[in-house]
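To whoever picks this up:

The nightly regression suite flagged GNAT family N-acetyltransferase as changed. Nothing in the input moved, so I suspect the structure step. Input below, exactly as stored in the fixture:
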Amino acid sequence: MGSAVIRPFEEADLSGAASALVEVHATDGYPVEGVADPEGWVRSTNVLASWVADMGGKIVGHVSIMRPQGEDAASLWIEQSGDDEDHVAVLARLFVLQEARKHAVGEKLMRAAMEYAQDRGIRLVLDVMTKDTAAIRLYERLGWFKIGEASHSYGEDQQIEAICFAAPSA
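Regenerated output under the current build:
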């Protein structure tokens, strides 16, 4: 498997990104929602910017920066920092196919999103399910820091514990 090219998401990537999402859900249980309509979940109207990882013409990863929509991480950061919502965005929709892991694809996607946010003076925040230990290690390795904990609600009445992080700089 060759090196991944990280590039801005294009409409032509939608089907490949949606397929990758469904595959990641099957292997990792992530995301806990959105799989019923993967194209809608990837293309949400709240997305400010997105990138894909392309390996030989196949979409193997994805990440988005989204407007805050009441996420605990955004609320915690605004409360703790005094930043206003216009200067905070949520890093979301990060997923990498199992076959592309160990090629720094997740890190490259994160760095693209972090650079975009830093260039615009936006502080990125996120929440991650406590079960997603590899993702937590990646965030910590890239300098993200814990700002709190939350309970992520999904489905009819399901909840899972999450950790909220903020990026190292805006």
